[in-house]
User: Fold this.
Amino acid sequence: MSTPGSRYPLFPGSAPFLSATELLRAIDGNADSDRPLAEWARALGSLYRDWLAEPADVRIGRQIATVVRDIDSWLSSRLPRPRPGVPRGTDSVGGVIGRVAEAAAAAHWTLHDAQDTIARHHAWEHLAEMRAGYEDLVEMVSRGLIHLPRSWPAISWPGITTAVPREAGA
Assistant:
């Protein structure tokens, strides 16, 4: 089985990114695109929807971390080299796409399942901010204006054991 990106070799000047609209359509499962990022965005959208339904399922968290890592691995050789002296980013592209997928799943959940109109408003406002942040990141990365960190799923991601609690008196 090939990964989504294996069908897409690097072509100089090609843009591997989706527009914010394409990204959100893919996350929602509505995109027809077979571009690698669309396939991974669809997977992340589905995983986050599943996670909302089964928040204790640690397998979902591991799958999310794997998709984020796959995105970052695929993009690593397809992005322009950052210019010298540019600022460092705090999250990878895969991490940002994961956060957009999480925000989209939460916004849709509040629309259908939350009674609190303020919570719905905040969820949709957060999704709009995440969309704008993704657009900004794509612009900065495409112009070599940011140095991205390597992919790492972070301690707070589900399914990652952070520490074993000590027993009393230990």
